[in-house]
Protein backbone atom coordinates (compact mmCIF):
# COMPACT_ATOMS: atom_id res chain seq x y z
CA UNK A 1 0.00 0.00 0.00
CA UNK A 2 1.15 3.46 -0.87
CA UNK A 3 2.26 5.42 2.22
CA UNK A 4 -0.10 8.28 1.50
CA UNK A 5 -3.02 5.84 1.56
CA UNK A 6 -1.84 4.55 4.91
CA UNK A 7 -1.67 8.07 6.29
CA UNK A 8 -5.08 8.82 4.84
CA UNK A 9 -6.56 5.63 6.28
CA UNK A 10 -5.15 6.57 9.68
CA UNK A 11 -6.60 10.06 9.44
CA UNK A 12 -9.96 8.64 8.46
CA UNK A 13 -9.91 6.21 11.37
CA UNK A 14 -8.90 9.00 13.75
CA UNK A 15 -11.47 11.47 12.44
CA UNK A 16 -14.40 9.07 12.02
CA UNK A 17 -17.60 10.82 13.04
CA UNK A 18 -15.94 14.05 14.16
CA UNK A 19 -17.03 16.81 11.80
CA UNK A 20 -14.55 19.27 13.30
CA UNK A 21 -11.73 17.07 12.13
CA UNK A 22 -12.42 17.70 8.43
CA UNK A 23 -9.63 19.75 6.80
CA UNK A 24 -10.64 23.24 5.73
CA UNK A 25 -11.93 23.05 2.16
CA UNK A 26 -10.40 25.47 -0.28
CA UNK A 27 -11.93 24.51 -3.59
CA UNK A 28 -10.06 27.11 -5.59
CA UNK A 29 -6.80 25.34 -4.77
CA UNK A 30 -8.04 21.75 -4.72
CA UNK A 31 -5.81 19.51 -6.78
CA UNK A 32 -7.51 17.42 -9.43
CA UNK A 33 -5.77 14.13 -10.16
CA UNK A 34 -6.70 11.48 -12.65
CA UNK A 35 -5.09 8.26 -13.83
CA UNK A 36 -3.71 7.52 -17.28
CA UNK A 37 -4.06 3.76 -17.60
CA UNK A 38 -3.57 1.76 -14.38
CA UNK A 39 -5.63 3.14 -11.52
CA UNK A 40 -3.48 4.09 -8.53
CA UNK A 41 -0.21 3.69 -10.45
CA UNK A 42 -0.36 6.26 -13.25
CA UNK A 43 -1.70 9.35 -11.50
CA UNK A 44 -1.28 12.81 -13.06
CA UNK A 45 -2.06 16.13 -11.42
CA UNK A 46 -4.09 18.49 -13.55
CA UNK A 47 -2.40 21.85 -14.09
CA UNK A 48 -2.09 24.52 -16.74
CA UNK A 49 0.73 24.24 -19.27
CA UNK A 50 -0.05 27.85 -20.16
CA UNK A 51 -3.12 29.97 -19.39
CA UNK A 52 -6.22 28.15 -20.68
CA UNK A 53 -4.35 25.00 -21.76
CA UNK A 54 -4.53 22.15 -19.23
CA UNK A 55 -2.02 19.25 -19.37
CA UNK A 56 -4.93 16.77 -19.21
CA UNK A 57 -8.69 16.65 -19.03
CA UNK A 58 -10.09 14.14 -16.57
CA UNK A 59 -13.30 12.13 -16.85
CA UNK A 60 -15.70 12.98 -14.03
CA UNK A 61 -17.21 9.46 -14.45
CA UNK A 62 -14.17 7.20 -14.29
CA UNK A 63 -11.38 9.53 -13.18
CA UNK A 64 -9.37 8.57 -16.27
CA UNK A 65 -7.46 10.96 -18.55
CA UNK A 66 -9.60 11.74 -21.59
CA UNK A 67 -7.46 14.27 -23.41
CA UNK A 68 -3.87 15.57 -23.38
CA UNK A 69 -2.71 19.17 -23.78
CA UNK A 70 0.80 17.82 -24.41
CA UNK A 71 1.10 14.04 -24.95
CA UNK A 72 4.89 14.16 -24.48
CA UNK A 73 4.95 15.93 -21.13
CA UNK A 74 7.35 14.22 -18.69
CA UNK A 75 8.53 11.58 -21.18
CA UNK A 76 12.04 10.22 -21.83
CA UNK A 77 13.45 8.45 -24.93
CA UNK A 78 12.43 4.82 -25.32
CA UNK A 79 15.37 2.41 -25.03
CA UNK A 80 16.77 1.27 -28.38
CA UNK A 81 15.26 -2.11 -29.12
CA UNK A 82 15.74 -4.80 -31.78
CA UNK A 83 13.55 -4.24 -34.87
CA UNK A 84 12.64 -0.74 -33.71
CA UNK A 85 16.00 0.72 -34.67
CA UNK A 86 14.55 2.34 -37.80
CA UNK A 87 12.61 4.84 -35.70
CA UNK A 88 14.49 8.15 -35.81
CA UNK A 89 16.12 9.28 -32.55
CA UNK A 90 13.69 11.06 -30.25
CA UNK A 91 10.54 9.96 -32.12
CA UNK A 92 9.67 7.20 -29.63
CA UNK A 93 9.26 8.20 -25.99
CA UNK A 94 7.93 6.62 -22.80
CA UNK A 95 6.83 7.93 -19.42
CA UNK A 96 9.27 6.92 -16.65
CA UNK A 97 7.97 4.65 -13.89
CA UNK A 98 10.67 5.36 -11.29
CA UNK A 99 9.01 8.43 -9.79
CA UNK A 100 5.82 6.42 -9.18
CA UNK A 101 7.64 3.76 -7.16
CA UNK A 102 7.85 4.83 -3.53
CA UNK A 103 10.30 2.15 -2.40
CA UNK A 104 12.77 2.33 -5.25
CA UNK A 105 15.17 4.85 -3.72
CA UNK A 106 15.50 2.73 -0.57
CA UNK A 107 15.58 -0.64 -2.38
CA UNK A 108 18.97 -0.14 -3.98
CA UNK A 109 20.62 1.46 -0.96
CA UNK A 110 19.24 0.34 2.41
CA UNK A 111 18.86 -3.45 2.17
CA UNK A 112 20.07 -4.51 -1.26
CA UNK A 113 23.08 -2.25 -1.59
CA UNK A 114 24.91 -3.90 -4.46
CA UNK A 115 25.81 -7.12 -2.62
CA UNK A 116 23.84 -10.27 -1.85
CA UNK A 117 22.23 -9.85 1.58
CA UNK A 118 23.29 -12.40 4.22
CA UNK A 119 21.33 -15.63 4.08
CA UNK A 120 19.99 -14.70 0.67
CA UNK A 121 18.65 -17.69 -1.32
CA UNK A 122 21.01 -19.05 -3.98
CA UNK A 123 18.30 -19.77 -6.54
CA UNK A 124 15.03 -18.27 -7.82
CA UNK A 125 12.66 -20.63 -6.00
CA UNK A 126 9.85 -19.17 -3.86
CA UNK A 127 10.64 -18.73 -0.16
CA UNK A 128 8.72 -16.83 2.53
CA UNK A 129 9.86 -13.16 2.67
CA UNK A 130 8.20 -11.63 5.74
CA UNK A 131 10.05 -8.32 5.23
CA UNK A 132 8.38 -7.79 1.85
CA UNK A 133 4.80 -8.59 2.84
CA UNK A 134 3.89 -4.98 3.59
CA UNK A 135 5.31 -3.79 0.27
CA UNK A 136 4.02 -6.53 -2.04
CA UNK A 137 0.53 -7.51 -0.86
CA UNK A 138 0.41 -10.77 -2.85
CA UNK A 139 3.87 -11.93 -1.86
CA UNK A 140 2.52 -15.15 -0.27
CA UNK A 141 0.49 -15.97 -3.33
CA UNK A 142 2.18 -14.09 -6.15
CA UNK A 143 -0.44 -13.35 -8.77
CA UNK A 144 1.86 -13.89 -11.73
CA UNK A 145 2.87 -17.12 -13.44
CA UNK A 146 0.71 -19.50 -11.37
CA UNK A 147 3.50 -20.54 -9.05
CA UNK A 148 6.17 -20.86 -11.73
CA UNK A 149 7.99 -17.54 -11.41
CA UNK A 150 9.43 -15.63 -8.46
CA UNK A 151 10.98 -12.25 -7.62
CA UNK A 152 14.43 -12.73 -9.14
CA UNK A 153 13.12 -13.66 -12.57
CA UNK A 154 12.29 -9.97 -12.81
CA UNK A 155 14.33 -8.13 -10.17
CA UNK A 156 18.12 -7.88 -10.37
CA UNK A 157 19.67 -9.82 -7.50
CA UNK A 158 22.36 -7.32 -6.53
CA UNK A 159 21.23 -4.10 -8.25
CA UNK A 160 17.83 -3.90 -6.64
CA UNK A 161 16.93 -0.59 -8.27
CA UNK A 162 16.86 -2.42 -11.61
CA UNK A 163 15.03 -5.23 -13.33
CA UNK A 164 16.93 -8.04 -15.05
CA UNK A 165 17.22 -9.45 -18.56
CA UNK A 166 18.00 -13.04 -19.60
CA UNK A 167 21.75 -12.39 -19.41
CA UNK A 168 21.61 -11.02 -15.88
CA UNK A 169 22.14 -7.46 -17.11
CA UNK A 170 20.12 -4.64 -15.50
CA UNK A 171 16.96 -3.29 -17.17
CA UNK A 172 15.59 0.11 -16.17
CA UNK A 173 12.20 0.25 -14.41
CA UNK A 174 11.41 2.91 -17.03
CA UNK A 175 11.79 0.39 -19.89
CA UNK A 176 9.80 -2.63 -18.62
CA UNK A 177 9.08 -3.84 -22.17
CA UNK A 178 12.64 -5.17 -22.10
CA UNK A 179 11.76 -7.30 -19.08
CA UNK A 180 8.26 -8.49 -19.96
CA UNK A 181 9.31 -9.24 -23.52
CA UNK A 182 11.77 -11.88 -22.34
CA UNK A 183 8.88 -14.21 -21.45
CA UNK A 184 6.00 -12.70 -23.43
CA UNK A 185 7.62 -12.59 -26.87
CA UNK A 186 4.27 -12.74 -28.66
CA UNK A 187 2.95 -9.75 -26.73
CA UNK A 188 6.18 -7.84 -27.29
CA UNK A 189 5.81 -8.44 -31.02
CA UNK A 190 2.18 -7.27 -30.96
CA UNK A 191 3.18 -4.21 -28.91
CA UNK A 192 6.00 -3.43 -31.34
CA UNK A 193 3.54 -3.70 -34.24
CA UNK A 194 0.95 -1.52 -32.52
CA UNK A 195 -1.65 -4.30 -32.04
CA UNK A 196 -1.19 -4.49 -28.24
CA UNK A 197 -0.97 -1.51 -25.87
CA UNK A 198 -1.36 2.13 -26.78
CA UNK A 199 0.47 5.02 -28.42
CA UNK A 200 -0.44 8.69 -28.48
CA UNK A 201 1.13 11.63 -30.28
CA UNK A 202 1.54 12.63 -33.91
CA UNK A 203 -0.72 10.87 -36.36
CA UNK A 204 1.74 10.32 -39.23
CA UNK A 205 3.66 7.03 -39.23
CA UNK A 206 7.01 8.80 -38.86
CA UNK A 207 5.67 11.27 -36.25
CA UNK A 208 6.74 11.44 -32.63
CA UNK A 209 4.83 9.05 -30.37
CA UNK A 210 4.57 8.21 -26.71
CA UNK A 211 4.45 4.45 -26.26
CA UNK A 212 2.64 3.19 -23.16
CA UNK A 213 4.88 0.63 -21.47
CA UNK A 214 3.69 -2.72 -20.05
CA UNK A 215 3.62 -1.66 -16.38
CA UNK A 216 1.57 1.44 -17.12
CA UNK A 217 -1.30 -1.00 -17.76
CA UNK A 218 -0.31 -4.24 -15.96
CA UNK A 219 0.57 -4.57 -12.29
CA UNK A 220 3.46 -7.06 -12.52
CA UNK A 221 2.60 -8.52 -9.09
CA UNK A 222 -1.06 -8.97 -9.92
CA UNK A 223 -1.60 -9.90 -13.55
CA UNK A 224 -3.99 -12.70 -12.64
CA UNK A 225 -6.30 -10.52 -10.52
CA UNK A 226 -7.33 -13.25 -8.06
CA UNK A 227 -10.61 -15.01 -8.74
CA UNK A 228 -11.06 -13.18 -12.02
CA UNK A 229 -7.99 -15.10 -13.20
CA UNK A 230 -7.34 -12.82 -16.16
CA UNK A 231 -4.69 -10.33 -17.10
CA UNK A 232 -6.46 -7.07 -16.50
CA UNK A 233 -8.59 -5.36 -13.89
CA UNK A 234 -11.76 -4.21 -15.62
CA UNK A 235 -12.51 -0.48 -15.58
CA UNK A 236 -15.91 1.12 -15.50
CA UNK A 237 -16.66 2.20 -19.09
CA UNK A 238 -17.53 5.77 -20.03
CA UNK A 239 -21.26 6.37 -20.59
CA UNK A 240 -22.39 6.68 -24.25
CA UNK A 241 -22.35 10.21 -25.72
CA UNK A 242 -25.37 12.41 -25.02
CA UNK A 243 -27.88 13.08 -27.80
CA UNK A 244 -27.80 16.65 -29.15
CA UNK A 245 -30.20 19.02 -27.37
CA UNK A 246 -33.80 18.57 -28.50
CA UNK A 247 -33.28 15.13 -30.11
CA UNK A 248 -35.45 12.49 -28.41
CA UNK A 249 -33.82 9.35 -29.76
CA UNK A 250 -31.38 8.21 -32.45
CA UNK A 251 -33.87 6.12 -34.46
CA UNK A 252 -33.27 8.23 -37.58
CA UNK A 253 -29.80 6.67 -37.80
CA UNK A 254 -31.41 3.32 -38.61
CA UNK A 255 -33.16 4.55 -41.76
CA UNK A 256 -30.98 4.75 -44.82
CA UNK A 257 -31.74 7.52 -47.33
CA UNK A 258 -31.09 5.13 -50.27
CA UNK A 259 -33.21 1.97 -50.25
CA UNK A 260 -31.23 -1.31 -50.35
C1 LIG B 1 6.97 -10.49 -13.49
C2 LIG B 1 8.04 -9.71 -12.95
C3 LIG B 1 8.08 -9.45 -11.48
C4 LIG B 1 8.03 -10.36 -10.45
C5 LIG B 1 7.91 -11.87 -10.55
C6 LIG B 1 8.16 -9.60 -9.23
N1 LIG B 1 8.26 -8.26 -9.51
FE1 LIG B 1 8.42 -6.76 -8.18
N2 LIG B 1 8.26 -5.39 -9.68
C7 LIG B 1 8.28 -5.70 -11.03
C8 LIG B 1 8.16 -4.47 -11.79
C9 LIG B 1 8.14 -4.37 -13.31
C10 LIG B 1 8.05 -3.42 -10.86
C11 LIG B 1 7.79 -1.94 -11.16
C12 LIG B 1 6.26 -1.76 -11.24
C13 LIG B 1 5.77 -0.46 -11.84
O1 LIG B 1 6.47 0.19 -12.62
O2 LIG B 1 4.65 -0.07 -11.48
C14 LIG B 1 8.16 -4.03 -9.54
C15 LIG B 1 8.18 -3.32 -8.32
C16 LIG B 1 8.51 -3.88 -7.11
C17 LIG B 1 8.74 -3.15 -5.88
C18 LIG B 1 8.71 -1.63 -5.74
C19 LIG B 1 7.31 -1.20 -5.46
C20 LIG B 1 7.19 0.30 -5.22
O3 LIG B 1 6.05 0.76 -5.20
O4 LIG B 1 8.19 0.99 -5.04
C21 LIG B 1 9.01 -4.07 -4.90
C22 LIG B 1 9.33 -3.78 -3.45
C23 LIG B 1 8.94 -5.38 -5.50
N3 LIG B 1 8.64 -5.23 -6.84
C24 LIG B 1 9.15 -6.57 -4.83
C25 LIG B 1 8.94 -7.84 -5.38
C26 LIG B 1 9.01 -9.07 -4.63
C27 LIG B 1 9.34 -9.18 -3.17
C28 LIG B 1 8.72 -10.08 -5.51
C29 LIG B 1 8.62 -11.57 -5.25
C30 LIG B 1 7.62 -11.98 -4.33
C31 LIG B 1 8.48 -9.46 -6.81
N4 LIG B 1 8.63 -8.11 -6.68
C32 LIG B 1 8.18 -10.16 -7.95
C33 LIG B 1 8.34 -6.95 -11.57
C34 LIG B 1 8.22 -8.14 -10.88
C1 LIG C 1 10.16 -14.95 -16.14
C2 LIG C 1 9.07 -14.98 -17.10
C3 LIG C 1 8.07 -13.85 -17.04
C4 LIG C 1 8.29 -12.50 -17.04
C5 LIG C 1 9.62 -11.77 -17.02
C6 LIG C 1 7.00 -11.87 -17.12
N1 LIG C 1 6.00 -12.80 -17.15
FE1 LIG C 1 4.01 -12.47 -17.33
N2 LIG C 1 3.64 -14.46 -17.18
C7 LIG C 1 4.59 -15.44 -17.05
C8 LIG C 1 3.93 -16.72 -16.89
C9 LIG C 1 4.63 -18.05 -16.72
C10 LIG C 1 2.54 -16.46 -16.94
C11 LIG C 1 1.40 -17.47 -16.77
C12 LIG C 1 0.88 -17.95 -18.07
C13 LIG C 1 -0.25 -18.92 -17.85
O1 LIG C 1 -0.28 -19.59 -16.81
O2 LIG C 1 -1.11 -18.99 -18.71
C14 LIG C 1 2.39 -15.04 -17.14
C15 LIG C 1 1.16 -14.38 -17.29
C16 LIG C 1 1.02 -13.04 -17.58
C17 LIG C 1 -0.24 -12.37 -17.89
C18 LIG C 1 -1.58 -13.04 -18.06
C19 LIG C 1 -2.27 -13.21 -16.77
C20 LIG C 1 -2.71 -14.62 -16.58
O3 LIG C 1 -1.93 -15.37 -15.97
O4 LIG C 1 -3.79 -14.96 -17.03
C21 LIG C 1 0.03 -11.05 -18.07
C22 LIG C 1 -0.95 -9.94 -18.37
C23 LIG C 1 1.46 -10.88 -17.88
N3 LIG C 1 2.02 -12.10 -17.59
C24 LIG C 1 2.11 -9.66 -18.01
C25 LIG C 1 3.46 -9.48 -17.78
C26 LIG C 1 4.10 -8.20 -17.71
C27 LIG C 1 3.42 -6.88 -17.91
C28 LIG C 1 5.44 -8.44 -17.46
C29 LIG C 1 6.52 -7.42 -17.26
C30 LIG C 1 6.36 -6.56 -16.09
C31 LIG C 1 5.62 -9.86 -17.38
N4 LIG C 1 4.41 -10.46 -17.55
C32 LIG C 1 6.83 -10.49 -17.16
C33 LIG C 1 5.95 -15.25 -17.08
C34 LIG C 1 6.60 -14.03 -17.10
C1 LIG D 1 -2.58 0.33 -22.93
C2 LIG D 1 -2.59 -0.76 -21.99
C3 LIG D 1 -1.67 -1.96 -22.22
C4 LIG D 1 -0.32 -1.96 -22.46
C5 LIG D 1 0.61 -0.77 -22.66
C6 LIG D 1 0.08 -3.34 -22.48
N1 LIG D 1 -1.01 -4.15 -22.26
FE1 LIG D 1 -1.00 -6.20 -22.12
N2 LIG D 1 -3.03 -6.23 -22.00
C7 LIG D 1 -3.84 -5.09 -21.95
C8 LIG D 1 -5.24 -5.53 -21.92
C9 LIG D 1 -6.45 -4.60 -21.85
C10 LIG D 1 -5.23 -6.95 -21.96
C11 LIG D 1 -6.44 -7.88 -21.96
C12 LIG D 1 -6.62 -8.45 -20.60
C13 LIG D 1 -7.86 -9.30 -20.44
O1 LIG D 1 -8.32 -9.90 -21.40
O2 LIG D 1 -8.34 -9.36 -19.30
C14 LIG D 1 -3.83 -7.35 -21.99
C15 LIG D 1 -3.40 -8.67 -21.98
C16 LIG D 1 -2.05 -9.07 -21.88
C17 LIG D 1 -1.58 -10.41 -21.68
C18 LIG D 1 -2.47 -11.63 -21.48
C19 LIG D 1 -2.95 -12.12 -22.77
C20 LIG D 1 -3.89 -13.29 -22.63
O3 LIG D 1 -4.00 -13.99 -23.62
O4 LIG D 1 -4.54 -13.46 -21.58
C21 LIG D 1 -0.21 -10.38 -21.63
C22 LIG D 1 0.73 -11.55 -21.44
C23 LIG D 1 0.16 -8.99 -21.81
N3 LIG D 1 -0.97 -8.22 -21.95
C24 LIG D 1 1.47 -8.55 -21.82
C25 LIG D 1 1.86 -7.24 -22.12
C26 LIG D 1 3.23 -6.83 -22.35
C27 LIG D 1 4.42 -7.76 -22.31
C28 LIG D 1 3.21 -5.49 -22.60
C29 LIG D 1 4.36 -4.58 -22.95
C30 LIG D 1 5.21 -4.98 -24.09
C31 LIG D 1 1.81 -5.07 -22.52
N4 LIG D 1 1.04 -6.16 -22.23
C32 LIG D 1 1.38 -3.76 -22.68
C33 LIG D 1 -3.41 -3.78 -21.91
C34 LIG D 1 -2.11 -3.34 -22.11
Structure notes:
The structure is a single chain. A hairpin with a 7-residue loop joins strand 11 and strand 12. The strands form 5 sheets. The chain has a 4-stranded mixed β-sheet with strand order 7-8-12-11, with no helix packed on it. The protein has a two-stranded antiparallel ribbon with strand order 1-2. It is globular and about 75 Å long. It starts with a helix and ends in a 43-residue tail after the last helix. The protein has 260 residues and is of the alpha+beta class. It has 2 domains: 30-70, no CATH class; 71-231, no CATH class. It contains 5 helices and 12 strands. One heme C binds next to helix 3, helix 4 and helix 5.
Described by the principal axes of the CA atoms, the overall outline is globular
Bound small-molecule species: heme C
Round the mean pLDDT to the nearest integer and report it.
84
Q: Count helical runs.
A: 5
Brief characterization of the structure:
It contains five helices and twelve strands.
Chain-wise SSE layout:
Blueprint lengths: L2 H13 L17 E3 L7 E3 L2 E3 L2 E2 L1 E3 L6 E4 L7 E2 L14 E3 L9 H8 L51 E2 L5 E2 L5 H4 L4 H9 L5 E3 L7 E3 L2 H4 L43
Parallel strand pairs: 8-12
Antiparallel strand pairs: 1-2, 3-4, 5-6, 7-8, 9-10, 11-12
Bound molecules: heme C (3 copies).
One heme C binds next to loops.
Supply database-style keywords.
globular; about 260 residues; 5 helices; two-stranded antiparallel ribbon; 12 strands; disordered N terminus; binds heme C; alpha+beta
